[in-house]
Amino acid sequence: MRLRPTPTNGHLFDLYAQVGTHLTAAAAALSKLISADMHEREALMDALHEAEHGADDAIHAVFERMNSTFVTPLDRDDLADLATTLDDCVDLIDEAGEFFYLYKVSRVPAELVEQVSLVEKCAEITAEVLPNLRTPSNLREYWMEINRLENAGDRVYRKCVGNLFENEKDPIELIKLKEVTCALEAAIDSFEKFAHVVETIALKEA
User: Fold this and answer.
1) Which of 85, 102, 100 shows the shortest CA–CA distance to 182?
2) pLDDT tens-place string over residues 191-203
3) What is the pTM for the complete model shown?
4) Which is nearest to 72 in space by CA: 125, 134, 126, 21?
């Protein structure tokens, strides 16, 4: 018999929702960062780091709550997988932003802007579903949409790399931009991994 979530378990899902708030803040800071002037980037990078640290704190709170709860609403391993893959999403957004900031990228290709837009979309719809993780079987539209966005991200990534090798004459700039676009591709991929965890749990709980 499946146990209904108790108020304690409900608080656990509230903590996942808190991670979502920091996730969207990180994605928004990244979006602002890539369009900002050089003198504005430090403050935006600080905001991105702050969002990542906030997400870390919320993830730690998830594990603390989970470990202190006798009966959890989902399998403990599944709850841990949700937390760790969600943490990866935020960490990889932060990493992409840090590469962009530290490398002092001066020219931002249109494809890179498109990648960041896809990261933002993934973050927004992921944050929307986090309060509903207690009923993962209702989230099919979510993992289907993330899969669509990840496929779009693959196409943009390949186009970006192809254009860099064809058009970028400065080898240093090519290396910088390739590092950033690879980091953004990894960030988009991390959302698909999270969506796969949600889908797997939904199949188990059905």
Assistant:
1) 100
2) 999 999 999 999 8
3) 0.91
4) 134
